[in-house]
Every structure is written in structure tokens, then in C-alpha cells.
Amino acid sequence: RVVCTTERSGVEMGRTDDSPRQSIALGAHKTKSKEFYDIVRHIGECKNKSDEDSIMRREVMMLRTVLTGPKLEKAKLKEYLIRLMYVEMLGHDAAFGYIHAVKATNESDVSLKRVGYLATSAFLDENHELIILIVNTVQQDLKSDNYLVVCAALTTICRLVNEETIPAVLPQVTELLNHPQMHVRKKAVMALHKFHLKSPSSVSHLHGKFRQMLCDKDPSVMSAALCALHDLTISDPGPQKNLVPSFVSILKQVVEHRLPKSYDYHRVPAPFIQIRLLKILAALGAADQKAATEMYSVLSAVLKKGDNQSSIGNAIVYECVRTAASIYPSPVLLEHCAGVVSRFVKSSNNNLKYAGLDALSCIVNINPNYATEHQMAVVDCLTDPDESLRKKTLDLLYRMTKSNNVEVIVDKMMDFLRDATDHHLREETATRIGELAERYAPSTQWFINTMNVLFEVGGDVVKQSTAHNLMALIAEGSGEDANDATLRRSAVAAYLGLTSKPRIPRVLFEVILWVVGEYGTLSGQSPQALMDTLCTAVEAQPEGDAVQAQAMTACAKLAVAGGGQLSEKATKLVNRNLNSRSIDRQQRAYEITALLRENPALVAAALPQDASCEDLEVNPALPALDAYVNKAFAEGASAYLQPSERSTGLREAGGGGLSHEVAGSLRFDAYDAPAPDRGIAATPAAPSGGMRLSSTGGTWGEPAGRSAPPTTAPRFEPPQAPEDDRTQLASALFSGVGAPPPPQVPRAPPPPAPRSDMDLLMGLDAPTPTAAAPPPSPPTPRRRRRRRRRRRARRRR
Known about the structure:
By secondary structure, the chain is mainly alpha-helical. Helices cover 59% and strands 1% of the residues. It has 37 helices and two strands. It has helices at 2-13, 20-31, 34-44, 49-67, 77-89, 98-104, 110-123, 131-141, 147-160, 166-175, 182-198, 207-213, 219-235, 244-255, 271-284, 289-293, 296-306, 311-326, 331-345, 350-364, 375-382, 387-400, 406-419, 423-440, 444-458, 464-476, 481-498, 506-519, 527-540, 548-561, 568-576, 583-595, 600-606, 626-634, 643-653, 723-733, 781-796; strands spanning 264-265, 268-269. A two-stranded antiparallel sheet has the order 1-2. A hairpin with a 2-residue loop joins strand 1 (264-265) and strand 2. Helix 9 runs parallel beside helix 11 (182-198), helix 14 (244-255) packs antiparallel against helix 15 and helix 14 runs parallel beside helix 17 (296-306). It is extended, with a radius of gyration of 37 Å. The N and C termini lie far apart (86 Å). Residues 1-29, 655-664, 677-719 and 738-778 have low confidence and may be disordered.
């Protein structure tokens, strides 16, 4: 690209009265030499990185010698700058030549000036110390009569502008919006867009300019204005609502081939302008029926014209489906989108299939019925060897999950979690499994079993909040004492069986220690045996050192149930942590040792059984400290003063010294200047106790190329499951989803949310919620704790 740019610069600026062929030859001769071609050829012939590095080291030494020499030929400076860019692009340091690129921007030769701007943009960044040297040059070049110089300066501004330099060039860039050359107007709009991205407040008064440039007679200027208006619309759609007719009109003209043929790409009219307009319409038509109604006809036309089975046509169709799913829904338009998406999903090309699944996920958010006819294709995607395709299929199923198919979908997600290797992908999948299990679990026992499997399979990526939710569910129960006891007994038995495994994730280990410490006696084993089991697991597990504090707390709770005595292994664990370097473990060890020496009633009050969900009632007056406070007053301690009272006392003291009431407090006012003619006054002694320290309260570029086929492993055809199994799996995944879509789409479909009759504690096998009305919010943990306190109060009475 550098060679092409410089050669074009030489040709354009080297034109004379001679023939065009002589001009091209003259420009090429001025731009490149034989040494330059040799360097490029040798780099291309390198077989490995070491050969390339050796060539570039010799090149760096040569360029350093030439550029630092006393006689530098300006005729060859352009080529030297190009060779410096090659050095920089191949990963070698060319900082010694940065200043020469900056100097080249001041040259009168237009070709050299443009190469200097190009090199400066490639070498420097917006925070480089040499930026200040080119600000004055840019200001002068923006006033040039040669539009090539103006374009070069605007390009450099877009690359190197920062918040400090924006005010220096903003007035001149704004004036260039009226330049007669379309290239200058386009680059001026791009520069203002860059200013908006860097400092929105600096161009907040120029938003109307983007609207004006939307009506420019040149399509390239209009497309540059669309990029700026897209960002403005995404940040705040409200002020741009009145532009909906304009955007619809522009999109209609583009679809009808009213733009020059030079904007066509593979016989598709201005596809990138279409995609940008579709994104803008998606933001403006969301939850706005009036604006969306104006878009339906043009979106149907885009779907019809873009469905030509070419890559760029598929991209337009995909973006159009996303737009139709984002705006206020139209049943007719959604039917059209579902028909187009079916071609993607059933395609043998994995790229099209991936795009189809993603587009189908957008439609399913409005109505899950549209996925029914593709259920067998979705089932086939679950067994595809392409990991990204399976991940996108699970995304689709995640949006379709209900209480009647949650078990099958969670099982498929668990299988994917076992095979996945990417850390972020595993973390996202584990989080989704926890969300689905917590929201749609058919029973509490199934939820606990699912969480145990999740901890085993993905314990390294499971969030701590998931473990806390599981422990809260076990502690709160369902409200029936018999069922809660059975649930906790089975949980204890399951977790005691897991302690014999060779490796337990830390998150699961913490849950095991808490559950066994709280409800271990329900298993029928003695507290001493349970303590020995936990201590043995702590010593055998790799994560044992990280959970010793939780293990000591669990053993202390079991000791309360066993009469206040620790087992032999538990005693060794506590004694070993008395000298631990961890402050937390050492403090717990000392507290447990001291607490177990007290009387059993005090120990039982400090470590109550099954009281983790009880609210603690705290008296802010702290009456238990009255005796300690009275004793301190008797010994001469001063009363505590609020920060406002302390400041008042200091002001009343006049700053000359501290009064007796506020002596010992920190002073926050400035000290007085010392007076030379005064003696040093004696400061009154502070009361006993000394000083009290109180605590203070959008860039356009080439279209993306085709993705290369995977080379890590050869593709293989997945084994086809028997027809009966595939049919059963599809029936389980899509159960409860009707075939025909409803004739009317709800006005504002709410996002999926758990209903009160689907709460984990109230039996989650209730009917599937409909989209006609937003479901009520589930009971909060505070409400569940209130119900639990009322049940406990009734039992005590």
C-alpha cells in the first residue's frame, strides 16, 4: 500500500506538459531506486524470521548513517522515509528517523510533503512529544489551494488529534465543509467525527453540520456523515428521531440503484452504506411504533433485493433481519425474515449456518414459535464438530429455555462445558447454566444436583455468587420441615461422598464444608467422625490449604453439636493454625480455642445451628458497653465528640491553642504564623489518655475477507444419530412451542423473567409463562427469610 500511495503521488504531482507516459515514468523514477526494489524482493524471499531480521538490521544501520550524515539529499529523502516505514512495520526501531518525517511535512514539494504526512501518521501517536511540531504546519496546509495537501493534512489530523490540539484546528476544519472538492468535504466530516470520538463536548455545537452533510450531492460525503450520525444515534436516539424519513429515503434510493455504479460491490448497490443505514434504523425504531411503521416497506425491499446468495448479499440480509427484530415488530415482516433465515440455517456452509443461528436468536426473542420449523437443523448443530457453531446453537437454546425443556438444554450445555477449552467460553457457559437452573429448575433436588455437577465440571470458572445461591437455597428450604430435612439429608450424603474424590474444586469444597458443618448431623454419623472426614479431605485435597479457615469453622459447629469437644484431627488442625501466617486463619484458631472453653450455653449462642438465614437484630446504642464506658469516664477519659462538634470547639478556641474539651483531637485549620516578638506560650497539658485519633468519615476499510478453513484438525462428518433419537431430542428441546406464529405480536414483549409460580421454593413445574403480560417478580431473599422467621416463631409458640 505504501508503494502504491507514493507512486500515485509521484504520478499526480509529476504531471507536466509532456505525455502521460513520460509523467508516469518521471514519477516512478523520482520515487523508487534499484536498492529499494532489492530490499522489497529480499524481504519477500526470506524463509524465516531470522533472515528477515538480519536484512532489516543492515537496513537500519544504513538508514541511520545516511540520515545522520551532514549531507542529506532531498531527492532521496522520500525513498528513505518509505524504507523507514518498512523498518517500522516489520517490528524494528526507526525512532531516529521520526524527526525527518516531521521536517518533510514542511517541504514545498507536494509529493515529499504527502510522504512526510504519511510517515508521520505511521510513526507517531496522539501523545507523542513531536506532535506539537506539526500543529502549525497542519494549520497552514489546511489553508492551501492544493486540495491534495489539504487532504493529507486532514488525514494526519484524524490519526494524531488529541483533546489539546482539537481547538487549534477545529475552526479551519469546519470551514472546509464548504470546500468545492468532494474529497476535502468527506475528510473534513471524518475529522469532525474523530473530534466527537475524542472529545464529544468540543463538537457538541456542530451536530447540525452532520445533518447538513447528509444532504451533500456526493455519496461519499453522505456516507461519512452517516458514520457520525450512527454514533450520535447509538448514544442518544431521541434527537435523531426526526431524521427517520431521510434515512428511509436514502436507503430506498440506494436499493433502487440510484447511486453511481462505482459504489456497487459484486453487483450490490453500496452495501456498506446499506448496512450502516440499517443499524441506524434499528436504533431509531426500537419501541417506537410510529417510526417503525415508516421502515417496514423499505426493509422488505432490502430483504428481497439482498437475497441473491452472494456473500455481501447475505451480510445485508443478516443485518436486515437484526433490524427487523430490533424495531417495533411487524408479523408480516418477521414472517419474511424467518423464511430468509431458513436458507441460512439449512446451508452446508458453517459460516452461513452460524449467521442463521444468530439471526434466529434475534427473532426468537420476540416469538419462539419461529424456531419450530428449524428444530431438526438446530439439533444437528449441537453435534457439529465446529465449537463456535455449537456455542451459537447453545445461545439460541438459552433464549428458548422454559421450565418444560430446561433439563435437556442444561444437559447439552454441561456436555459443551466438558469439551470446551477456552477460559472465557467456559466461564460464560457456567454462568448461563447457573442462571437457567436457578430460574427454571423443576425441583429443588434437581437444582442441587445440577449445581454439584456444575462445580465438578467447571469449578475453576464458576462464580462465587453461584455457590452462595446454592447455600442460601439449602438453608432457606421450601417451607415444609419434612421436605427440607429430606433435602438437607440427601445433600449431606452427596457431599460426604464427594470428599473421597482425588480433586475437588475450591468453590465446591467451600460448599461441602458449609453444608456438612451446618447439617452434617442429619446423616446419622457422629460429630467426631464428621470432623475427621473433613480434616482428612483438607489434608488430601490440593485446595485444602485455601479452605482451612472454613474447615475450622465447620469443625467448631460440629463440636457444638457433639458436646463442645473437637476430635483429635480437628484439634491438630486448629493448633496448627495458631501460628499460621494467615491472619484470618490464626484469628479463627484462637477464637475457636477460647470459645470452646466457655460454658455450653454461650457456645451454642455464638455458633447456632441452622440459623444462617436469621436476621441479626443490632441495637445501635450498644448497651453492652455501658460498663466499659462508665469505667473509662471514672478514670478521666474525655467524652466522644462528633466531627462537627470538634470543628466548633476549634473555632471557639480561636486557633491560638486547644481548649480542654477538644484537647487531643486533630486540628484541621491552618497554623498561625510565628510572631518573633512573642515568647512561646506554655501549652496546657492534655488529659490522661493522650491524643485520640478519631476516624474520618467507526472507521471505513476493506470488507472482511473470507475466513480461512480450520487447520488445527481435519474436518470429519459427525455421526448421525438415529432418527428416533434426533426426533425425541427435538421434541424435548422445542416442547411447548407451537408451530404457527400468533397473528398479533405484543406491543412491547418483555424480556424473559422468572415468575412467582416458578420460584425454586414454590415448585418450578408450573405452566410456561406467556408473552401477553409481563410476569411478576419472584420472591426476594428478604421475603423468604420473613416467612422462615414466622414459621420458627409458630414452632416456638
